[in-house]
Design brief:
heterodimer, A: 690 residues, alpha+beta, seven-stranded antiparallel sheet, seven-stranded mixed sheet, 25 helices, 18% strand, elongated, disordered N terminus, B: 569 residues, mainly alpha, two-stranded antiparallel ribbon, 4 strands, globular
Chain lengths: 690, 569
């Protein structure tokens, strides 16, 4: 996670403003119509109402039980409140971000082109309209200092655009008509020049609008796995409802009249309130983690799918390698002085502003300690690179220095391939074989040597792929390089497989093949020709800098346009699922201890012998029941941080991960409540609460 | 507990494990339609049946078609058995001249044999004619077992196939189970039982003169054959009321070992069959290991409690060294009686060689609890397997999330639909067991059937409904269950436990079979290792058992503490 994105949207876990807002929202969420969505907590609320009625009856009737039933009903209400509070906190962070975004969506005035020409200025004529009135297909003019009124594609012009409203990155980016950099986003500002934009989004459906809805959670629906988990929790609630309701008759047979308020306590402690109360908070927090990480997922389903990904398709350029080849060595032919070869390479690259050219200059100046050549006084002409000649260089006085693709330079010096010196051939072959690109250098018709341009693999990427492999994820490198080059880089980077000379159709075919084999595929892309593959992939991450088509085909958009993030996205997905599993296991395992607290208390009046089951030696039956209910409520609060932060993810195999988590949350879930209930009982007894 | 006792238990466990693999692989071959040793003999018979009944063996059914075929078959079975019971007085082979069976008992008995429960609210030797025993009850001993196995095979195919829509043909599976599995095995076991001294005759009874000179009529009948399928098909309905404690049904230690083995043999082997058919025999062993651990722990508790004896009796001067021998047969001893009790309840068999009502409180808790866990240890033939699959699905779903992937079992994603149906199935058990128990516990007309008051009385009620719902059929004998209330409600509980459970399970199978299979990787939760075994045990105990804890606390658990403090009711 880059430091930039961390600080940008960083909101502390316990931001006081969010907490106080969450407290208010938590009370609002008590409305039964809202709680119906969460059956476990809904049952708890119904039961809390019942307990309150019983408390009032005790109070009026003076049964002497009012103090006890009052406390029980208070804690039952707390249980419900803590659950709604957890959800409110999780939502609160999104709401704060949405407010910031909304501020950028001010009432923009757009210059809609009329199609005619302004007679006064001779420029294209336009009407001033409200951004909200723009329709699909309208073309607007945006000039320096203007806010881009809506999402669209540039049809004409080039401009630098400040997109910090969306990405948080203040450095301007270049947007121009045609190609893969033609999409602009409403709410961003043109800094220089002008562009004509064809509107591609209707009012209220722009990227920023969607983003606001996403971070606010307004469109939040239960994701498939969340839905399945809710069903499980509802089922467990029903099972325990049966167990508690039937206990009435069974206890009656045994000569015990169990007070309803006690049965109600037993029910609430047994049903999975912990995970039930935290479930939606976990989901929201997972989405929130992605957003803080500057990735927008269009659905929660995509986040879950990210956890399931089996195959990662990664573009070589920019993800695995730095994206530009760099000069790593100069190979001089026999009889050529190495310094002379380096000097020629330096001269030929002086005017070359490409990263490759700059790296040649840097290598010559660095390793060969060559000084900056004095050209000012001399008669120098730069020969720029063209697609036809495929060579570039310089003419200085009577020297003609050139560098370029091997065959082009050979043509320049007038050699046929069989006339080439043997040493030259071997050098070229060696460089190609190891994934590099050879550039030949020549001067005045004489071949001097070869520059070795190398794709530099990012440091640390190998380790990350090893970690992915341990997680069971296969990495596949996609490259336009020939198979030989691709294989060399694949070996160096440690990817499992590669797709060389990949066309968009190849990518699509590859994804389909993986999916037929039962594997889920994630990829990222930015170009229009990536769109079909992005749509086919189970997790498609489009770059914010990419085309509109790509951004719509993917199910996530990376605002930082950093393809390496795919790896973190997978981790966030896994973390989300793991947190759910951990808290479910914990919640269910808790029941063992709760039985040992409540059951002896329930029946000890009829069968004093059942004291033997009171293994925690709780002070009195009432204190035992109260302690279990209090523990059950407090554990929700105690686990909110874990629900929001997520269970720690380690890149190890499933078996190792599971055994660790089973011990922590399964065994821990059995043991923790024994300790917790005992401590609460000590406090309850000391304070004479029961 | 003695070393010798454990050696006997170990011997039987070993026998089961030795036979599980070959038998399991044989069954896999049968159900995959491959050629087996018996094909030359039975193949023509099998196809003859299809020809006669117009079944097209290649025409497979989807889950609904399969389930409906099973339900129609069961309904017809119920009607025919009910009719035999109600008219046996007019039917042949009734040498003792028994009367027609009354409607409520006929209803209960027909349901009981149909659902592989074999709860018997009557004494066989004084109620049922030979014709009823053979053409009615024995037939259903085969058919109910075959139905269970067929269903389990259909569920197995759901995991064995990917992106498919059909689960097999019910009639074919039913025919193959009966022809290739149940009949051959029954013949072998019956012969072995005859060798060990079990009678097989059409004589009604013999008259004997006792040493005191009294005249005695000793009931006889075609026992060995019925005994074989009673055990093999985990039916448990005995020829005699005393069931496998009767010296004709189970004369000696050898026949006892054979009986325990035959209870376990098919259910254990079916787990191997499952593994083989889904492509990993190891998966089958992992399932077997999970249930084996719980079952052996159950045997150990019964054995331990029964050997420890009853302190109340000890204080009255009874020698504690032999343990609690009430309700047990000297010829079987503590170890194999304990094992029989745990196995027959872990297995949904319900045959008994020991009176469970006479077990010590905790010794009696074990059979009760093992039934309540859902009869999956390893459960009735077939029903145990599909019950266990439900638990495996839940285990994978609950804990599988902790590996950071949406849960999958054998490559099939477990989603909301499967969980909904699995919970629906699991819900049936507490609903029927606790629901009926709660009503019966406060209903005066139901309580008159109890032989005991206090917690033991509650145990008897709880045991009856657990046994019926779990399709076990054994009883805490203190309950006189042949009354309209008990016959009717227990009958309903049996229907709920069998069909209320299996219909959702078949719907799961229908959904699973259509899914494609996700490829396994290092990130997949491995379900064939010790970790999964432990997890499955935990889920069976917590999800399957925890809800019964309050009821158990008021029954056998409190009874145990009362016994320790020398209180009786």
């Amino acid at each position: 996670m880059s430091a930039k994105s961390e600080t940008k949207h960083a909101l502390a876990l316990v931001d006081p403003a969010i907490l106080s807002q969450a407290a208010v929202d938590a009370v609002k969420k008590l409305s039964p119509t809202q709680l119906m969505r969460n059956p476990v907590i809904f049952v708890t609320e119904v039961v809390a109402c019942l307990a309150t009625v019983l408390f009032l009856r005790d109070l009026v009737g003076g049964t002497g039980q009012a103090w006890f039933s009052g406390q029980i009903s208070a804690w039952l209400w707390f249980t419900v409140l803590f659950a709604t509070f957890a959800e409110s906190i999780a939502e609160g962070r999104g709401k704060a971000q949405a407010a910031t975004l909304r501020a950028t969506r001010s009432d923009t005035v757009a210059k809609r082109l009329t199609g005619g020409t302004d007679k006064r200025t001779g420029k294209a004529g336009y009407d001033l309209v409200q951004a909200i009135e723009l329709k699909l297909g309208d073309v607007v003019l945006v000039e320096a200092g203007d806010l881009i009124p809506s999402d669209g594609d540039i049809v004409e012009g080039v401009a630098s655009v400040n997109e910090s409203a969306i990405t948080g990155e203040s450095a301007p980016v270049i947007r121009e008509a045609g190609g893969d950099r033609s999409a602009v986003t409403g709410g961003t500002t043109v800094l220089s020049d002008w562009i004509k934009v064809r509107i591609t989004a209707q009012a209220g459906e722009t990227f920023i609008d969607r983003m606001i809805r996403l971070v606010e959670g307004a469109e939040r629906q239960k994701t498939p796995n969340e839905l399945a988990l809710s069903v499980l929790l509802t089922g467990l609630t029903l099972i325990f409802l049966i167990a508690v309701v039937t206990l009435y008759g069974i206890a009656d047979y045994s000569g015990t009249m169990v007070p309803v308020v006690v049965l109600v306590s037993l029910l609430v402690t047994l049903i999975p309130t912990t995970i039930g109360g935290l479930l939606s908070a976990i989901g929201i927090a997972g989405m929130d983690r992605l957003i803080r990480f500057n990735v927008l997922a269009t659905s929660g389903r995509a986040v879950e799918a990210a956890g399931d990904v089996d195959t990662l398709l990664l573009d070589k350029t920019g993800t695995i390698t730095f994206g530009n080849r760099m000069a790593s060595e100069f190979v001089a032919l026999p009889g050529v002085e190495p310094r002379r070869m380096a000097e020629a390479a330096l001269l030929a690259s002086l005017a070359d502003e490409t990263p490759e050219g700059r790296s040649i200059v840097a290598l010559a100046k660095g390793d060969y300690r060559l000084p900056e050549p004095e050209l000012a006084a001399r008669n120098a002409t730069n020969i720029p690179f063209t697609a036809q000649t495929r060579i570039s260089g310089i003419d200085v006085d009577d020297r003609q220095v050139r560098k370029g693709a091997v065959d082009s330079v050979l043509r320049f010096v007038g050699l046929t391939p069989d006339q080439v010196p043997h040493e030259f051939k071997t050098a070229v072959e060696r460089i190609s074989r190891t994934g590099g690109t050879p550039l030949a250098v020549a001067e005045n018709g004489a071949l001097l040597g070869v520059i070795h341009l190398k794709d530099v693999v990012k440091p640390g990427i190998r380790e990350r792929f090893a970690a992915l492999r341990a997680m069971g994820i296969k990495t596949v490198m996609i490259t336009g390089d020939n198979p030989l080059t691709a294989a060399a880089i694949a070996t160096e980077a440690g990817v499992d497989d590669f797709l060389a000379e990949a066309t968009p159709e190849d990518k699509l075919k590859f994804i389909r093949r993986e999916q037929t084999g039962g594997r889920l595929v994630a990829m990222c892309g930015d170009g229009t020709n990536d769109a079909p593959a992005l749509a086919q992939a189970d997790v498609g991450v489009a770059m914010q800098t990419g085309t509109q088509a790509a951004r719509e085909a993917g199910n996530m958009v990376d605002l930082d346009s950093d393809p390496t993030k795919l790896i973190e996205i997978v981790e966030i997905g896994k973390q989300l699922l793991m947190t759910r599993g951990a808290l479910t296991t914990f919640s269910i395992a808790n029941d063992v201890a709760k039985y040992f607290a409540i059951l002896p208390a329930l029946f000890v009046a009829t069968y004093p012998e059942l004291t033997a089951l009171n293994v925690m030696h709780l002070a009195s039956p009432q204190s035992a029941i109260l302690s279990a209910v209090i523990f059950n409520a407090l554990i929700i609060i105690a686990l909110i941080p874990l629900a929001l932060k997520g269970v720690k993810y380690r890149a190890v195999g499933a078996a190792a991960l599971l055994s660790r988590n089973l011990v922590l949350y399964g065994l821990g879930g059995i043991i923790a409540p024994f300790i917790g209930i005992k401590l609460i009982d000590l406090a309850v007894a000391a304070l004479h609460l029961a | 507990m003695t070393f010798n006792g454990w050696l006997q238990i170990g011997l039987v466990v070993g026998l089961v494990l030795i036979t599980a693999r070959p038998l399991g692989l044989y069954m896999a071959a049968v159900f995959e339609g491959r050629r087996t040793l018996l094909t030359p003999v039975l193949g023509p018979v099998e196809h003859g049946f299809y020809w006669l009944s117009g079944v097209k063996p290649d025409k497979e059914q989807g889950w609904l078609g399969y389930t409906l075929a099973m339900l129609v078959f069961s309904a017809l079975g119920f009607v025919s058995l009910y009719a035999i019971l109600r008219t046996q007085a007019y039917l042949p082979l009734n040498p003792q001249g028994f009367d027609n069976v009354p409607p409520d008992l006929a209803f209960n008995t027909a349901i009981s044999f149909l659902t592989n429960t074999n709860w018997q609210a009557y004494s066989g030797e004084t109620t049922m004619s030979h014709f009823t025993q053979m053409a009615g009850l024995a037939v259903h001993n085969f058919l109910s077992a075959a139905t269970g196995i067929a269903l389990a095979i259909a569920v197995t195919r759901a995991f064995a196939r990917a992106s498919a829509s059909t689960l097999g043909n019910f009639w074919v599976d039913l025919t193959r189970t009966t022809l290739y599995v149940l009949i051959p095995l029954s013949i072998v076991v019956a012969i072995l039982l005859i060798v060990s001294g079990v009678p097989q005759t059409l004589l009604a009874s013999v008259d004997a003169t006792t040493l005191d000179g009294a005249k005695q009529t000793i009931a006889l009948g075609p026992m060995a054959g019925q005994e074989a399928i009673k055990q093999l098909g985990t039916n448990g309905g005995g020829f005699f009321n005393a069931n496998s404690a009767h010296p004709f049904e189970n004369p000696n230690a050898l026949s006892n070992v054979l009986q325990i083995w035959s209870m376990l043999a098919i259910s254990a082997a079916l787990l191997v069959t499952f593994g083989k058919m889904v492509g990993s025999v190891r998966q089958g062993w992992a399932l077997l290991a999970s249930v084996g651990v719980i079952l052996i722990a159950g045997i150990a508790v019964v054995y331990w409690q029964e050997s420890a004896g009853n302190p109340i009796l000890t204080s009255l001067g009874v020698d504690p060294s032999v343990g609690n021998m009430e309700g047990k047969e000297i010829r079987f001893g503590q170890a194999l009686s304990a094992m029989f009790a745990a196995v027959t309840t872990g297995l949904s068999c319900g045959a008994v060689n020991t009176m469970h009502d006479s077990l010590t409180p905790l010794g009696g808790l074990v059979p009760l609890f093992l039934i309540q866990l859902g009869e999956v240890l390893p459960g009735g033939v077939g029903s145990g397997l599909y019950g266990l699959i439900v638990f495996a699905i839940l285990a994978v779903f609950i804990a599988g999330l902790m590996v950071g992937r949406t849960p999958e079992f054998l490559g099939k994603k477990i989603e909301a639909r499967e969980i909904k149906l699995a919970m629906l199935a699991v819900l049936i058990l507490p609903l029927a067991i606790l629901g009926f128990t709660s009503v019966a516990a406060v209903l005066p007309s139901a309580l008159t059937s109890l032989a005991n008051n206090g917690p033991h009385g509650l145990s008897e009620i709880l045991y009856a409904y657990s046994s019926a719902t779990g399709n076990n059929g054994s009883a805490f004998a203190g309950l006189s269950a042949n009354t309209p209330w008990w016959n009717t409600t227990l009958g309903i509980a049996m229907v709920m436990g069998r069909f209320g459970y299996v219909v959702p399970v078949m719907a799961i199978a229908g959904s699973i079979v259509t899914k494609k299979r996700a490829a396994a990787s290092a990130g997949t939760f491995p379900t064939d290792r010790a970790l999964f075994v432990g997890l499955l045990i935990g889920v069976i105990l917590i999800v399957g058992g925890l809800q019964f804890f309050p009821a158990l606390a008021l029954g056998p658990i409190v009874e145990h503490f009362l016994m320790l403090s020398a209180k009786t009711f």
